[in-house]
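Subject: sequence -> structure tokens, single chain

Hey, anyone have a minute? Need the predicted structure for the following. Not urgent.
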Amino acid sequence: MKFLIKILFHLFLISFVFAQTDQRDYDNELRYQNKAINGLKKEIEQLRSKIKKAESKERSASYRITSLDEEIALTSRLIQSLKKEEEKTRSRIMQLKEDLLRNENELEILRVRYKQRVVNSYLKGRLTDLEKVFSSTTWRQAMYRTHYLKIISDIEKKLTKQIEKLLIEISQQKLELEASLRENLILKRDKEKQMSSYRNMRINREKELNRIRTDKKALSNYVGEKETGINQLENIIKQVLEDKARFDREERIRQQQAALKTKSFSALKGGLPWPANGRIIAKFGRQWNPKLKTTTENPGIDIKGQPGSAIRSIMGGVVTTITYIRGYGTTIIIDHGGGFYTVYSHVTNIQTNVDGEVRNGDVIAYMGDSGSINGSKLHFEIWGKGQKLDPEKWLTKK
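Reply:
Had a minute. Here:
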């Protein structure tokens, strides 16, 4: 009996410690997600305010569709963050229900045991502890009884404390469960609202695209957005290269490569995997547009693939940037160490986060048409030592 109670007491302490650790992990993750959601909402508000102010001056189709693209990209990321937080709260609700049921069952067992001890003591007529000691026939027996009574007293105190702790914990879990249920409902409603807004923006975007495809001047202006996007991307890469955090990333990447026993980026030229399935529709370098009869510079390659197909990191590294770039849509930049970076544009349904570590082959997003006029595709770039490199020379031959 004594041994069993001790085991129960230690199990309670262990479960209590783990419950506290889980709670801290959940709270930290929730704070991170809330920060991401609030940040995206603020970006969307700022963008809408900017669009509203510019509407009186700029009414071109290319401006409207670029603004829609950016708003759609931000809303898509917001929906993903809301989904993640909703899933997190749903998991927390399930965990709380399980913990609550386990604690209530444990409390019932302890209550039954405590009740049995009280009933047995009453039916048998309980001697005082002093009477038990003085009724001993020998000095040795008296010593044994004194020691035994101390053990029994300690066990009862622990049992009482355990019951009190369980009652407090059950009360706290019920309050947290109610709060989590309310939070989950709010997240669900917010997600549905954003998804409805997203669908409407997609419909408006398609209408604008249909207009722009038949207007050569508007199409030329829209394609010209890519020039702005190239400058924007170059500035972002420059900032990343000058960022003090790159030293920390370099160390993390070295540790990752050592743990996975992988080679450095520079040693894998011509042997890197492709980031997506599909065919190349635009190569690296100068490209001729027969429809507009213009030549443009392509800083990477464009891969045409199935909408919603997986986009994978070609090598392990750390995500430095997730942003919208004019003419390129939602863009992810990954630092692979040694001054090498990869860029993934026109993506949707992002599966990673800034400062998150990725491994070779990890799905980081899915193929979309963010910032694209020609449907779903991936724009892919490789940068080395601050220079744009031809991706086909680094990827495995097909």
